[in-house]
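# nightly structure sweep
# worker-07 picked up a monomer target from the shared queue
# config: single-sequence mode, recycle default, output format = structure tokens
# input follows
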Amino acid sequence: MTTSHRKLTPREAWICLGKGLLLFVLIPWAAWAAADEIADYRLTRALEELQADGFATCIGELLPPEIPPEENAARFYSAALAAFDIIDRPCLISADAFSSTTADEKAELLNAIDQSADVVGLLRRARSLRKCRFDRDYRKELSIPIPECASAMHLSRLLILRAQTQAEAGRQEDARESVRDLLALAECFRDEPVFELQFTRSILVDQAVITIEQCSRSAGAEADLLAWLRLLPSPSTWDEALERGLRAELASTACLLTKSRKMDSLLREPEGFSRVLDPIVTLLGLETLDRMRTAVALCGRRNAEAHAIATAMIDRSEPVTMNFNILRFLERPIRSLLDQRAVRKARLALAQAGLEAELFFVRHGHYPTETEVRDEITGEPFVIDLGEGVIRAAGPGLMDPERLKVENLEWTLLPR
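# output follows
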């Protein structure tokens, strides 16, 4: 039995080719549509879970409350930051170089400090008001203009040098007032739902701790040492600042994923191609949200435990890392942030241990042999080495001492 094969007519051949091309187009489109639906579903569920757990999914939910103009310190802080621009900033040396300044350099420095009287006056007026909210358009989410960051960092140099010159001249209470100005400048950003401002706040508080350590070296009276000790900020300040900053980043990321699936400007690709990548970007964005959510939870944990979890989280996320600008832009280096927080809290604890040791000497005529103050990095009490004349950490702990500069965390006891 033979089978006959009929040759297709040209019309039938074109029909078969058209069906094949249609299948070639429809199958990938159907797969993309299914992936897009899955991404939408997972995004909706993720946002619902975040809201149920108390996380904001847009910056608007984190805005500080409205403040009547007469109660708002922001206008005085903004004026102080603006007025500082007219000061001769080049002569404002770094705080570390203050002890080695020449007479001419110190004269220039004192002149710049004298010019800052109006700035300090504005800061003191701002300190008299307990509430602060800056006038900015928070609807811009990730593109919120934040000019205060750089200005606040420059102004902090002035306040630090002012405190140092006052302490050197024996004006201990005036030096403490300058440090209070610095701490107040940091706290004006306390309610800001912007990561960069919370990060600036953390740095300013850390600089205040360093300044307290430097200025208290010239304090010999028990009352002065007690006043410096009481001026130390709470260690929870860095936990709160990091958590607020990460919550703001999480809210901005969620809002960005919700508002638009077209990431053209962030992906730097043509609109049509970026639309094809929308499901992939959304799913990777959800991974970012999940890691940021975990990062927020780490803010309240001790450093050793938080560091271990952050390391595992980073290692787990490496296989899904792709070369999308949006993920690199949104996801903060959480392990580095946790390490910085640990070093700052360790420096604060060291300052507490050092001031308590100096106070002990004033009261008893000799230094103590041990302290109960614990180091945030190692979790162990600081070691008082009377032979070397220093208070130091028991060891580097779980982190690389070179990366964290742990070797710099020492309090040198005053030669008596």
